[in-house]
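TODO from last week: model Chymotrypsin-like protease CTRL-1.
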Amino acid sequence: MSCLINLNPLITKGFVLTAAHCIIDGGNLKVRLGEYDSSTNHDCSGIVCIPPSEEFEIVRAFRNDNYSRTDRYNDIGLLHLEKSVVYKVSTVHIKPICLITNTAFQPQIEGLQHFVAVGWGGSSPGSPSHILKSIRANRLNRSECRKRYLVDCRMDQICVAHESGESCSGDSGGPMGHAIRYHGRIVFIQVGIVSYGNPECRSPSVFTDVMAHMNWIKNVLDLHS
């Protein structure tokens, strides 16, 4: 899988969440926010257009110290933007995704069985999409994932099978989430980060479990915000 930094979700005005394997040592990373159709300068539906996407330089990338390149354990990272995002009416299409930091919600999150993942990955190898797409995914228990697909899924990972399409090249580091009721409101929360999948674009895919790494996320934000 390749990593598109115009897919990774904004979680605060200054940080973007990604996969550790997307962070290349010595690489010059930029983040593009508000992109929908990567083949055009302006994203339009008929005569209605949204404002153009915005690019941000990265001043520092944080990769989980326990990340394993060989098996993708602890595959999570954070990108610190050079300048903070300014939320305004003209850029209403750019806003942060929600993360659940309250551990009281952990049983509810762990009980979720159906998700939505987004990305520019195609449904076959080597055929990325220009349009941001969403696919539905269903959780597989770890023993089923190991038995059916020979994938060893750890406690800090989520194994899913896809209903249609597939999380292919172009999706790495991208978000998977679910809508929940939180303090009386329905909010879409990020549950996982695309880590790796079947190279032939078949189920399953393995996602880093965001909540399992919440302490690491909060520590980085507390130290560098």
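Done. The chain has two domains: 15-96+215-224, 103-211.
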